[in-house]
């Protein structure tokens, strides 16, 4: 997963007084720091506590990005992908392989239909909106597969420009934030079962981190179903990337393989078939959930007002339309078949 770059420190002559105070250097016990760094640190520490939740962590990150700003944007951008991957592997220690196979069988038809349907719809709507082919394909792949991870993998295959990557990432991250807050509410209002909600999350929410956050808020069974189906869905990065190279006639490109998914599978198999490993499961799952909470805080802290404005209306329109169609269609099918 890749975050967008924002200016961590506004220029002094452009910043209001309270902002200048946040960025002013101070010294204590020989250490130089700013109030901006202190605020970030307090929010970060809170995300490590039991009182934090994925939606709250994302909200805190967004609040920080719109006010004080993220003083460690470069570090959090680099840490997010690794933290997400290790957290996914950690969740594997709480999964049962037999239940995962059953969940995978349930979700495979929905997965295949939604991926190809989303890519086709994205192509048609993108042409109508007059967006570039690369931006359309990046947003469509992010919606169809696994959000920022898919965009980060498909972008180099397309030889996409930095601004095209930023537009696609900004679009799916904003929609991820909306989904994280709205999906559990909709699920409870419609009285979705744990299996139904987990399957819906895995199909209709872009990023794995937001899928886990929404499903964890709904229940442990929903979390297990959502994680399994979403990671199986993420493996489609490989064939879609190969298809992208052929479609856009790109030669000599490198395909990014999501190897961390195999780490999740290994952890799940160990938890299922090696009794000595099972006592470690609860601790590993707890650490994984904390990792996802911190990941969402980092993502929110990267979505500054400058980043949100830079995307433009048409990419948001494409991303929103694709998201609404996928969400509504998958929900209808799940309600009538699962």
TrEMBL record:
InterPro entries membership: UPF0324_pro
Keyword Membrane appears in the UniProt entry: yes
Transmembrane annotation, as ranges: 38-63, 83-101, 107-128, 135-155, 167-190, 197-219, 231-248, 255-277, 283-304, 316-335
Protein localization: Cell membrane
GO cellular component: plasma membrane
Membrane topology: Multi-pass membrane protein
Keyword Nucleotide-binding appears in the UniProt entry: no
Key words, A-Z: Cell membrane, Membrane, Transmembrane, Transmembrane helix
Family statement drawn from the similarity comment of this UniProt entry: Belongs to the UPF0324 family.
Protein name (record): Sulfate exporter family transporter
Organism: Hymenobacter cyanobacteriorum
